[in-house]
Amino acid sequence: MKGTYVSENIKTPKLPLMISTGVALALDVAITAVLGVMGLKPAYFALPLVSAILDALFLAVAAVSNFRFKYTIGYFAAYAVAYIGIAAGVAAMFAAVHSAMSLAALIVWLFSHVVMIAIACALQAYASKRMRGADVIKGAVAIGLVAVSALMAIAYGIYMHADGFFGQGGIKVRPVVYTYDSKLDIYEATSAMDGSGELVVIPEKFNGKPVSRVEASIIATPGIKTVRFEGSDFTLENLSALKPIMASGDVPTVEVAKGGIDVIKNRLYAEGYKQYQNGLGDEGGVCFELANAMKICGLDKNERYITFSYDLTSYNMLGGQLPATWFGNEGDVFEPADFKVDF
Predict the structure, then answer these.
(1) What is the SS3 assignment for 341?
(2) CA distance 247 to 23
């Protein structure tokens, strides 16, 4: 009795799944490359790299598979579980008490990866001919899912270009590590991560909570050329860490928001005066030098300003009653008489 020969290489509609997996691979490779270009330690991009390797391995298996359901469900399930596990691992790494990843960046990261694997699950069912419905409708759904995966990757790329992987700014911004104080319900900026970024941005709030303390050693981090403070209601801790860069003259540009210049400078001058009074002249000098080095960012195109610098002698002469920074537009005349102080 003659048997009927059935080819093992059964043709299956696996192209949509392969395209979607290729999109996921491109996204994970791009994330790994960005983190590498940022000069971060390998530990920070190891998991995205492993995710990209998983994508590549699954894509290779899919290319030679006939996608008969009972033979493919095992390795697809392993891929899906590992993919979600890695996404969760990255989230756990950067969402601890000492956090560098903003809540928004964390949500975008998890959401994009959950959507990508959900699409892969649906396209796995399509490739295995387990999706119900008319062929035309199933084909349209598969094409739509591929389009969604591509749009998701593009949207994530746009977000990362604007806010960076950590949600702290683009690729040129050095991420900062924040520590949450549950008792005071505040964050402290504790350190800048190793990397190639030359700009550090300290926001007024991180994850919706005020950044009320800033470790001054961030300003002295090697490779940092600009430190920008977007808020003014914070204190600088461990100012003595700035003595080496003050002595060498290798001080980065320190920028503050227009509305916070006088608040921050006056607080530093007052702290410097206190240190001098306590016999800590080096620490007092650091406070005065840092205040004098501050510049204003975020001005309008034609806006100009004049701010004043002080040493211990001039601060004493004014009794700590310091004139406010003058703001005007191009062409305005600065009148020194407007800043007359009685002492």
Answers:
(1) coil
(2) 52
